[in-house]
């Protein structure tokens, strides 16, 4: 079989881009060099897709997608990425995940799945579950969200989207809007953008949902400029507007949810004359009016495509390490 | 890679059979020419399967099977069809379909899945959901059932079965029996058979479950002969006897269901000396006694095989359009 | 395409190893010659995996994994096996299995799935369901557990593990510990080990959970030596210690469960100086302390790998029959 990188059309600088870790559990483990390498590899993956019908990159390799809580979007994105690389997928999803109910530990499940799959992506409702899994896994392990903890491929696809929409990352003004207290993606992305130079943050939220101390202390430590406000207009003046959903399940008081959920709704008229790229981790439930979709500012559907590219890049880089 | 249609054994008249639509949401969008072309392609698909181990027709292509309500039969049939063509499948099924519960619109889900898959098949409990999905999908979209609405590949597989069992479609006498009011397959198949010449319908049901006005007005408008009766014997004199299940979930009054469900049960002795082909969309729950299974009249299990062939044909034709 | 067995590196004695049955529903149908042939083929499968990236053995073949009750471990093991052989998989799992709820018989489901797949693996909560399925299936059928009945590939993977850990099977002293009354794996494995010469059994359980009469009458009939005891130490003196989980769902009285579940817990200190191989069908819920995992005695995670090999062997042998 012809190696995938032997053709004239596709030069894959394998040695130069190897990651120096086996598992991806947190954006905090990434250096700027790592992040840049993954973004670069994601662009190669796009070219690989566009050239079509080539030799598969990961023939015979199996991804285990273990989703202890349902996340159709993330799961389908990982599965698509693996299939696009020519690999295969085994899936355990939500209600099907019977061993969980029989009291098996995460460690035992991961050791078992090591006997089946060549790489694992796991979503689990408990913070810290990903670290426990990675600690015992002999095959590469990717955290696909551990409760309120980390979701590094989401942050990486956000980063790729920002770079593609704006042409750079250094020096950008980034606004994050909505539920900044519980929004896992907001935290992960902040840590990742903190690797770049001169990025400034504007956090816009009702005061009940401000960014937590773990984020602000990170920013202070790194001496990164940021402001906190409840004024939506501050966000519209930035280069990037990262909208998030205010999740009903975070509220015990439903009336409090009803009062807050409409606090920050973006409509097309607000974007008139504005050069701001609008991102959203999706699904949205009203925070962005559909009249925004047709504007060039709307980057949130392109994010989904970038998600496949980032996951292809991470799967490919982690599995190529051993070759 | 050798093109699939270059071999001497397999001449695929690609240009001549292209469909002039991108999405398949309703049998009403089909002309007789379309229906004939799909049936012809299904026969080619059978030959493709029989010749075995050939070059895959759809290498690298991904079908997204989105089932907002469970339908194992239809889902497995679509997935089998895609795998038999050499493609791959990503699946979101029933309880797993988390975004639904997070309030995402069908439109947003479809736009997202467009970033993952090359073609989509969707089942959804709401009538009209398929049209909403097709309106925003840039990749081919197939309606796999939208509540009480349409389920075009079911009607096409019924049509293929009728043609194979009877050798023709024009001029046949078709009896439909059971729940004709809520039976989606009965409606879709009527519209499809209405494209052919001289087909006559006999609708047999309790009066609580007669065919709705949308069907009878279609028949009147097209000047198609039909009769309505509650006499099961009228059905046995036809060329085709299309049995349907009387679904408990359609009744609020359980005793009414119990009274009606045994109204029309087919047994082997009734078929003695009769040249009538028996179809059923399955699953059956007692409407056809298992003693019928061994008779040559019993076409309902061959229907399942025809379902794979029709879905192969539709997937292949819709994806070949862009080649 | 080059036949898989034409290469110099891989001699597969196809004719000599054909099984003389089409369906695998029970260990009771296996002769010693059958069991030996499957173990030998499993070792060939390991070699096939190690040599990597060869021609697929089962290209274009589809496994239907029908799981009427969830069993992620068994399902993923079967799916992995099929994918490793180059085949594909369609899956219906637990809550998704909608036709079940619509009252379809097992027979109708199997006849339908025959139209989709080349081979079927089914788990179902009712004893006898596997025999009903096999009776109507024209494609090879594998019982993946029928309630309190049989689960032959589990017993075969246990057998393979015993042989690999001990270098032989004849003459071994086998201890089985825990819930011997309801433990399906204990019964199936006993029947299978009964084919070998001079195997002796030590059954260790609280008296509420002793092996049932169907097992002891088998042992008496075959004149196989066995003892029953509630003394855990008797187990530690054997060559193989087969631990099982005491399942909460078997108890109506929770306090009775709480009292019994800790009766037989294995800890590392008990294994000091002991040459006994520890197996467990997994998942464990405390019967084996994690401090055992690092000992060479711990064979239970290697069992999972052997499970893939056994299922590859069975899938391959049953599908090769028709070639």
**CATH arch. level architecture of the largest domain in chain A:** 3-Layer(aba) Sandwich
**Roughly what is the average pLDDT of chain A, rounded to an integer?**
89
- Overall domain count of chain A: 2
Shape of chain A: globular
Q: What's the β-strand tally of chain A?
A: 9
Identify the CATH homologous superfamily of the largest domain in chain A: Aspartate/ornithine carbamoyltransferase
Number of helices of chain A: 11
Task: Using the coordinates above, name the CATH class of the largest domain in chain A.
Answer: Alpha Beta
Q: Greatest chain-chain interface? A: A-C, 25 and 31 residues
Distance between the termini of chain A: 15 Å
How much of the sequence lies in strands of chain A comes to 5-15%
Query: Structural class, from secondary structure content of chain A?
Result: alpha/beta
């Amino acid at each position: 079989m012809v190696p995938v990188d032997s053709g004239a059309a596709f030069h894959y600088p394998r040695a130069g881009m190897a990651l120096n870790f086996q598992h991806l559990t947190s954006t905090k483990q990434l250096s700027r060099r790592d992040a840049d390498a993954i973004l670069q590899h994601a662009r190669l993956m796009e070219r690989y897709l566009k050239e079509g019908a080539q030799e598969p990159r990961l023939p015979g390799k199996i991804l285990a997608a273990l989703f202890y809580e349902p996340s159709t979007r993330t799961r389908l994105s990982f599965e698509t990425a693996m299939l696009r690389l020519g690999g295969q997928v085994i899936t355990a999803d939500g209600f099907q995940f019977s061993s969980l109910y029989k009291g098996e530990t995460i460690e035992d499940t991961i050791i078992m799945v090591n006997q089946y799959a060549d790489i694992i992506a796991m979503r689990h409702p408990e913070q810290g579950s990903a670290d426990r899994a990675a600690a015992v896994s002999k095959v590469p392990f990717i955290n696909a969200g551990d409760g309120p903890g980390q979701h590094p491929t989401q942050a990486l696809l956000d980063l790729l989207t920002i770079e593609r929409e704006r042409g750079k990352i250094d020096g950008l003004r980034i606004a994050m809007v909505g539920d900044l207290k519980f929004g896992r993606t907001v935290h992960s992305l902040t840590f990742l953008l903190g690797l770049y130079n001169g990025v400034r943050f504007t956090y816009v939220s009702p005061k009940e949902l401000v960014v937590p101390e773990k984020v602000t202390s990170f920013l202070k430590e790194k001496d990164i400029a940021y402001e906190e406000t409840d004024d939506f207009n501050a966000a519209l003046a930035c280069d990037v507007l990262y909208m998030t959903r205010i999740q009903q399940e975070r509220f015990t008081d439903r009336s409090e949810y009803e009062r807050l959920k409409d606090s920050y709704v973006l409509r097309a008229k607000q974007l008139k004359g504005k050069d701001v790229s609008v991102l959203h981790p999706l699904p949205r439930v009203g925070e962005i009016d559909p009249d925004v979709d047709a504007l060039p500012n709307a980057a949130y559907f392109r994010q989904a495509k970038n998600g496949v590219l980032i996951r292809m890049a991470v799967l490919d880089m982690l599995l190529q390490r051993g070759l």
